[in-house]
Write a structure and sequence with these properties.
The protein is mainly alpha-helical. It has helices at 3-20, 25-41, 47-67, 86-91, 104-130; strands at 71-73, 80-82. Strand 1 (71-73) and strand 2 (80-82) form a beta hairpin. InterPro entries: MZM1/LYRM7 (IPR050435).
Length: 131
């Protein structure tokens, strides 16, 4: 991989992961190990092979930052809590809504919606394990 651009891509992926997994140390540690492994695997790729890989890394960084949310189960409850920021909310709503229209109440509603979806996914996993 070309040193300058691959290093930038590596840093972009790590920054995205550090934001997304900031409250989940185990997931972040696994993320770092896998990211390093993938970059080291392609360390000696030639210029023609490296550019698509670098582009993929930047796309992955964007997805990791904007497309992944971490849900935490509330202690003693069956509910999950999700913390979203404005950019994550904008990725998943109607594009007619502007940033000015996204206030704390709107974000809380979106967090509850995502948490409910996460809870449903967890319940489906449990049902599949039982079968």
């Amino acid at each position: 991989m070309s040193a300058k651009t691959s290093l930038g891509a590596f840093r972009a992926v790590l920054r995205a992961g550090s934001y997304t997994f900031r409250e989940d140390a185990v997931a972040y540690k696994d993320f770092i190990q896998q990211t390093k492994g993938l970059f080291l695997k392609n360390k000696f790729a030639n210029e023609n092979e490296s550019q698509p890989l670098i582009n993929d890394a930047y796309e992955a960084a964007y997805f990791i930052r904007h497309g992944i949310v971490q849900a935490k189960k509330d202690e003693g409850k069956e509910d999950y809590r999700v913390k979203l920021d404005k950019t994550q909310v904008l990725e998943h709503i109607d594009k007619e809504i502007s940033l000015k229209q996204i206030d704390d109440r709107f974000i809380k509603r979106m967090e509850k919606k995502v948490a409910a979806e996460q809870k449903g996914k967890e319940e489906n996993k449990e049902e599949n394990k039982e079968q």
